[in-house]
Amino acid sequence: MPKKSIREEILAKRKHLALDTCLARSLKAQESLVAMPEFIAASTVGLYSPIHNEVFTEEIFRAARAGGRQVVYPRVSGGSLEFVAVEDRTQLKRGAFGVLEPSGSEAVMSQALDLLVVPGVAFDLVGYRLGYGKGFYDRVLHGEKRPGLLVGLCFELQLVAELPFEAHDVKMDRIVTEDRILDYSPQGQASTDTINQTL
Ligand code: ADP
Ligand code: MG
Fold this sequence. Notes:
The structure is a single chain. By secondary structure, the protein is an alpha/beta fold. The chain has a single domain (3-185), classed as Rossmann fold (3-Layer(aba) Sandwich), CATH 3.40.50.10420. 29% of the residues lie in helices and 23% in strands. It is built from six helices and 13 strands. Helix 2 (19-34) runs parallel beside helix 4 (58-66). The longest helix has 16 residues, at 19-34. The chain is globular and about 40 Å long. The model has no long low-confidence stretch (mean pLDDT 93). Bound molecules: adenosine-5'-diphosphate and magnesium ion.
């Protein structure tokens, strides 16, 4: 199936989630994420501001700040994304595509992020990600610009067995949902068993 059809199908499904379902599932996914050893060890964490029923991220922000971590959010800048520190969520202002963006002036390089939480329309079981079709994250995160750990955050209903991918598509190291954590790092072989059992 082409990327466009998968996008439409998953976005339609996610749109129908009720707010309380979104909140409950988001809470579970966020609790799993903030319990990850890499999150606990991180000094700088990248987050996103949710739109269109993406998994909420307020709890991750709260946990990160409570643990004294620097938190950065992406901002669209000249066809690319830049990451800017946010100490308080009131510093986020409505920006490109209706997304809440940071208002500070100093950008942090993506490779300086210990962990980046990445939103998506869909993710597959080898770690590929489907975005809204603009390739922003692909452009910012490839090669030497890659952060320490890329963590896709989504609901179970956004997982598909296999996504079509192109050479520019960036793979995740982990995917966190309300039900599980999928680990694609070489030492994360155990989660492959989970994948085989459940899909
Ligand atoms: P998304 O990841 O948002 O689902 P795509 O993977 O289809 O979207 O990418 C959209 C477009 O972004 C691609 O057709 C490509 O032109 C552009 N793009 C993605 N990554 C890069 C890159 N590293 N360098 C230049 N252009 C890129
Ligand atoms: Mg892509």
